[in-house]
Known about the structure:
By secondary structure, this protein is mostly beta strands. It is built from no helices and 11 strands. Strands 2, 4, 5, 6, 9, 10 and 11 form a 7-stranded mixed β-sheet that branches. A 4-stranded antiparallel β-sheet has the order 1-3-8-7, with no helix packed on it. The model has no long low-confidence stretch (mean pLDDT 94).
Amino acid sequence: VQVVESGGGLVQPGGSLQLSCTASRLPFVTYAMHWYRQGPNKRREWVTTMKTSDNTTRYLETVKGRFTISRSSVRESRKHTVYLQMNNLQPEDSAVYYCNADLSQYGDYWGQGTQVTVSS
């Protein structure tokens, strides 16, 4: 299994970024795709989830209305690509963002993370 994130970078407050995550070579059906983040000197926190069966989504309260998780319209066997559109970014959103492929009882897989820095 391979999980790869991309799209991080430096952005000014109020700006936008779109992160991408591709999970490939998945051995089983994926239950959900998650985004987490870990800021400096902070614990890793959950940000958003998309269930792959019906595309239902959930968000951390502080990102609701600003962040949107979506998935690629291209359906490929044993592969999922999801995106995280982040608008109106604030300094407190600065973190390493991690993608997680959740295979339910079969375990989960993490990417290496992508750095998002919001600063003027």
